[in-house]
Write a structure and sequence with these properties.
There is one protein chain. By secondary structure, this protein is mainly alpha-helical. Helix content is 69%, strand content 7%. It has helices at 2-24, 37-62; strands at residues 30-32, 35-36. Strand 1 (30-32) and strand 2 form a beta hairpin. The chain is elongated and about 45 Å long. 10% of the residues are buried.
Length: 71
């Protein structure tokens, strides 16, 4: 259970870092006007990173046990 949380936190942090790097890049294929494909992937990655990290935080706060440990 702890290893699962650590893995999810690591994946969430990795998505956040890569997404921030994508948003910092200039250039890339233009989708419409000033929006590039890198911007779209960057914002989607930040949203995914936020969801993953919030799942870890909520699970840590709740301290929920897996289904097989419950009476």
């Amino acid at each position: 259970r702890l290893v699962d949380r650590i893995v999810v936190a690591f994946v969430g942090a990795a998505f956040g870092i890569v997404s921030a790097l994508l948003l910092g890049l200039s250039g890339g294929p233009v989708v419409s006007g000033t929006v590039t494909l890198f911007d779209i992937f960057g914002y989607i990655g930040l949203a995914l990173s936020t969801v993953l990290l919030l799942r870890v935080v909520v699970a840590a706060i709740k301290g929920d046990a897996p289904a097989d440990d419950r009476p």
